[in-house]
Each structure stands twice: as C-alpha cells, then as structure tokens.
Amino acid sequence: MRDTFMERFSSTWSVEARQKFRREPTVVRHNYHEHHLFSDMALAALIERHPRELIDFCTMGDDATDHDSWRAGDPGALTGMELIEAVRKGKLWLNLRHAMDLDEQYRPIFDAMLADMKRANPGFRPLLAEAGILISSPAAQVFLHSDVSETMLWHMRGVKRFRTYPPRLPYLNRDDVEGVLHKDKTEDIDFDPAWDKDAFMLDLHPGMAINWPLHGPHRIENQSGINVSVPFEISTPQSRRQNAVLYANGLLRRRFGWTPKSTSTEGLVAMAKQALTAAVKLKIKFFGAPQADLPKSAKTFDIDLAAPQGFTDRQAA
User: Fold this and answer.
1) CA–CA separation, 260 and 66 (whole Å)
2) CA–CA gap between residue 56 and residue 97 (Å, rounded)
3) CA angle 242, 246, 248 (to 5 degrees)
4) Which of 177, 178, 255, 301 shows the smallest number of beta carbons within 10 Å?
C-alpha cells in the first residue's frame, strides 16, 4: 500500500490510452517528475551509492546512422555531483541499471508506476519488471534499436524527441530480434533517415510517459536540458510467448538450416516452438549456454569535468 507521501503521485490515462496501451504508441501524463528524488542532489547521491558495476557511462557521435560511435567510458573518482555537472555541460549518457527496483528510496516510485500500468489495462500482467534511471546530456542521442522486452519510458526532466517505427520490414527484420535473443548480436538496427517520414514522433516533456508495441524500433534525440528518464523493461505472458517463438525460429535456422516463415504465437506449431525454447532454456540453465555472450565494450574515454564534451579520449594502444 502506498504511504501518504506517495499518494500525491500518480498518472492519468485517457480512455484512448487505456485502449492503445501495448498495441500502439501510447502517451500518458504523470506527476512523478515532481518527486524530490529526481533532483540533482538526490541523483548525485544515488550515483555514489549505486553499485558501480550497474552504471554505464557512455558517449556517442552526431550521426544517427553511426552506431559505432557509441562508446563506453570511465567516471574515475568523480563525485556524483561532479558527474551530474559533466553530463550537463558535455555529451554523456548514464544508465543506472536497476536503480528503481533495487534502491530502497526509489522502490516505492517503481511500485507505484507498475501499479498504475496494471490499473490502466486489466490484460497487463507482468511476470518480471525492472527499471533504471537514464541521465543524459542536452545533445545526447540513443541510436535506433529494438528491445526484446515490453517497454514504457517515464520522462522526468529535460526535453527529448522520441521516434518509433512499425515493428516490421523494412524497419525491423525479425532475424535481428532472433539474434538478440540468442545473444549473438546487439539490439542496434541499421537506420535509414528516410524512415522518419513513417515514424511516430513525440517531444517528451517532464510529466509525460510513452509506451510502444513489443520490438518496436525506436530512437531518441535530446533537445534541451539535462534529461532524466525511467525506462521500464517488462516481461509479460504475451512477450514471453512471442520471444519463445522467435528464439525457436532462430534455433531451427542455426542448427537445422530450416527457415520458419511464421512468427505466430497461436496454434499447434507455435506451441511446439514454445516447448522447444523451454527445453533449450532448461538445458542452458543446468549445463550452460552453447555460445558466449557478446563482449563488453572497452573503455575509450575518461569523464573530465574540464573538457568541452565532458570527457577526454584515451590514447589508442
């Protein structure tokens, strides 16, 4: 049950938003951005106490098609407030993974947001959910990619331009989703700027949240201010069935040379694919994965408060 303080915070869902939730891009309003835990001081304290191995420090280039410009960096011994200032003046992107669901101060907000989504749609029954906190510079961007989880982005500070594209060709190749599920490729998708004419576009301001269909390709360009957002990643019975079918399709292609054409989650064939995935996952659980995870990116820069972009490149070996 929410305490008295948390009862001040909630979200507002229109009839249209309730109907479109998880089916089409859906926008809702909220006032969680007014919570003091999204202030500079609170976020700086969170950065200092959050497990460092659960924080990603990244930068990127200006070209929306240049995925290779996405790089990892090292925060060094900078304090939380110094890192906030480096983000404010530079071109940086910080991802505090699991901050909302692991940190005891933020967990009540996480629980309240999840409860809002459940109330909005009776068919929404999350099996697992996690949420981090993204803190990014006014000029930062996130390249086109597709998540294998259902996603909702709650925006707290700054302005970011969000675009999502239909989860079908040419914007999304299901083979790419299979690759992510099999952990032999990243979530990145090659981007053609001509696709923007077909995108759902929205400028997210504080107090807005957006949800979009499973696997929907999306990208983000910050517009102004230090940006703070809470991305929810959610596993539901529907997403688990869909991913199980796609995983099985990838397995049949990789091991048996057969290319299944259907991604349907209904019918006997779909049930057989889901059973195959369950069996393979059980085997992996007990005997290990047949393939190695993708290697982590090497750190190529150091966050530097004095540098114009908030970081200094390391010399190549």
Assistant:
1) 31
2) 8
3) 115
4) 255
Beta-bridged to residue 232, according to DSSP, are 131, 152
Q: Which residue has the tokens 């990643």?
A: 233
Residue 87 neighbours by CB distance under 10 Å: 25
The number of residues in the chain equals 317
Phi, psi of 54 (to 5 degrees): -100, 15
pTM of the full structure: 0.92
Query: Residue 12, SS3?
Result: strand
Residue 212: what residue type? W
| Whole-number Å distance between alpha carbons of 11 and 226 | 23
154's enclosing H/E stretch is strand 150-164
**Spatial separation of the C-alpha atoms in residues 179 and 208, rounded to whole Å:** 32
CA-based nearest residue to 226, from 117, 48, 94: 94
Q: What single-letter amino acid sits at 30?
A: H
Where helices occur in 15-94 by DSSP H, the ranges are 15-20, 40-49, 80-89
Digit-by-digit pLDDT tens for the chain (317 residues) are 445 667 899 999 999 999 999 999 999 999 999 999 999 999 999 999 999 999 999 999 999 999 999 999 999 999 999 999 999 999 999 999 999 999 999 999 999 999 999 999 988 999 999 999 999 999 999 999 999 999 999 999 999 999 999 999 999 998 889 889 988 889 999 999 999 999 999 999 999 999 999 999 999 999 999 999 999 999 999 999 999 999 899 888 888 878 887 888 888 888 988 888 888 877 776 665 655 555 667 899 999 999 988 999 997 54
Query: Distance from first CA to last CA of the chain, Å, rounded?
Result: 55
Q: Which two tokens stand for residue 241?
A: 């069935």
Q: Residue 142: beta bridge partners?
A: 220
